[in-house]
Write a structure and sequence with these properties.
88 residues, elongated, mainly alpha, 88% helix
Length: 88
């Protein structure tokens, strides 16, 4: 338990950040999952939109500091590679 006012404030801030980061991570996971599912169906128009949306959410999460930039870049590259393979 926090003993000082500043420690209590830091704790409140950490709780807010943790809640925000969890929400962003969940949206990222859902977007990537949806993209992978649409790629499996071979529907090119829906899959292109889903991959674009997942790429956007991953990039946003990286810019906000929720994900490490290289982690996001790696996931984006894998999605793009899967999209290219599904297209061919």
């Amino acid at each position: 338990m926090a003993n000082t006012k500043s420690a209590e404030k830091r704790n409140r801030q950490a709780q807010k950040r943790r809640a925000r980061n969890t929400a962003v991570r969940t949206t990222v996971k859902n977007a990537v999952k949806k993209a992978r599912e649409t790629l499996a169906t071979k529907d090119t128009t829906k899959s292109a939109d889903a991959v674009k949306n997942a790429t956007r959410t991953l990039a946003k999460a990286a810019s906000k500091g929720v994900l490490h930039p290289r982690n996001a870049a790696r996931r984006i590259a894998r999605l793009a590679k899967a999209a290219k393979a599904a297209k061919a």
